[in-house]
Amino acid sequence: MSTALALDHVAVCGRELAPLVAAYEALGFSLSPIAQQSGKRSPDGVVEPFGTGNRCAFLRHGYVELLAILDPTLFDNQLGRFMDRYEGLHILALGVQDEMANLARMQAAGIAIPGVAWLERPVDGPDGPRAKFARLPFPDAPEGRVQLIRHLTPELIWDKRWMNHANHADALVALVMASAAPAETAARFSRLMGLPFQPDPAGGSQIRLPGMAGLAGPEAPAMETMVRILEPEALGTVLPGVEAPTLPFMAGMMLRTDDGNAAIRAMGLPLVPTRDGLMVPPALAGGAALVFCP
């Protein structure tokens, strides 16, 4: 199949990893061990160590990545440039079943992408097995790193040791962003994904991904997920109190819980009610608004 099928993951980016880890552990997430990334700078390049590294909150469907610069002397894969704009959400990854079919579709649509970008990182410590990914980054996306992705070793990263969260989050269901021209942004994203866009009831546009069982995690159900591209003035109606520091702006994410938000209510956090659930303010979640949906 040659379209994007599901939200795979989003990444909250910071200049240092430790504050992000502390914030997300305080929100009830279990995180995977620290992993420094490596990859190829071009499709025909050699694999080299990158200066970036992560810890992740793996869900039954999708995951949340916490990404920072671990070694500033190494290639940062544009992360420093992203954070010159703001610290928070900068990466949106959409799951595909076949990277080569999607590459052909994107090139036929006039997207200037030279080939598959390969990435890998260790799992469970620096000497553990290496997880590998096939990526199709959207060239020069002003929103940040927007990419299609296929996991080549999903069984290595969706480890049950890192999926038992005290907050009962179990699925990544939506990314919310703001754009000065939502229809134009949605049209570009539509070309990337191979999917149509439609009006968002809050004001702006949205793209719905149909889902596929086992795509965004070995136990992931076939469920619809969504990218919402809002008008700046509509952002506060979806994420109360959140304002865009610049445009475009990846503002927040929505995670489903499997207990109707009972655990997150009991944690004593300063939660903000929204139309979709309970929101953790960006200041407590690394610069990203985080909505827990029942």
Can you describe this structure?
Helices cover 18% and strands 35% of the residues. With 294 residues, the protein is of the alpha+beta class. The protein has 2 domains: 6-162, 2,3-Dihydroxybiphenyl 1,2-Dioxygenase, domain 1, CATH 3.10.180.10; 169-293, 2,3-Dihydroxybiphenyl 1,2-Dioxygenase, domain 1 (Roll). The longest helix is centred in the middle third of the chain and has 12 residues, at 182-193. The chain is globular, with a radius of gyration of 18 Å. The protein starts with 5 loop residues before the first strand and ends with a strand.
Please provide the count of β strands: 16
Distance between the termini: 31 Å
CATH topology of the largest domain: 2,3-Dihydroxybiphenyl 1,2-Dioxygenase, domain 1
Gyration radius, rounded: 18 Å
- Mean pLDDT across all amino acids: 94
Q: Shape from CA axes?
A: globular
Taking the sheet with the most strands, its summary is:
8 strands, mixed, barrel
Which spans of ≥5 residues are poorly predicted at pLDDT below 50? none
User: What is the architecture of the largest domain at the second tier of CATH?
Assistant: Roll
Q: Helical stretch count?
A: 7
Helix content percent band:
10-25%
Count of discrete structural domains: 2
